[in-house]
Amino acid sequence: MSLHRVNPAELSPATGFSHAVVATGGRLVFLAGQTALDADGEVVGETLPEQFRTALTNLLAALAAAGGTPADLARVTVYTTDVADYRARAHELGLIWRRLAGRDYPAMAVIGVVRLWDEQARVELDGFAVLD
Question: Taking Cα atoms as reference points, which of 31, 30, 21, 23 lies closest to residue 1?
Fold first, then answer.
């Protein structure tokens, strides 16, 4: 299996994401949306960065249970109830991403939503990975 990240020079610089990821071989792992739920099913954290850290930790835990690592992520979608807050905290969220998932960025999108399944949730992440 290999993932090749593609960032064409004619597109804006890819900062914290890849414009395209080419996956060859391997098994696909589809990751369900993860919010800031703890093991008891309660949303933890008040701020977007706190919830983002937990949601990403949960996503990576599901990936690890399937036999993957952050470098195997081909695509992640971020759903947030406050895009303006997400943009304002992008640097801080990027630091959290790099600390937990490294610098092998998947193709990503951030989508604003009215609300998430759990009313207190501010962010949800889903995606897919390609494993050997």
Answer: 23
What's the confidence (pLDDT) of residue 1? 65
Q: What is the CB neighbour count within 10 angstroms for residue 53?
A: 21
Query: What one-character-per-residue DSSP string does 69-122 give?
Result: -GGGEEEEEEEES-HHHHHHTHHHHHHHHHHHH-S-PPEEEEEE-S--SSTT--
Q: Residue 2: its pLDDT value, please?
A: 82
Bridge partners, 37 (sequence order):
43
For the chain, 132 residues long, the average pLDDT of each consecutive 10-residue run is 88 93 89 96 97 98 96 97 98 98 96 97 97 88
Burial code of 6-37, b = ≥16 C-beta within 10 A, e = fewer? eeeeeeeebeebbeebebeebeebebebbbbb
Number of H helices, E strands in the chain: 3, 6
Angle ∠(51,41,17) on CA atoms, nearest 5: 35
pTM of the entire predicted model: 0.91
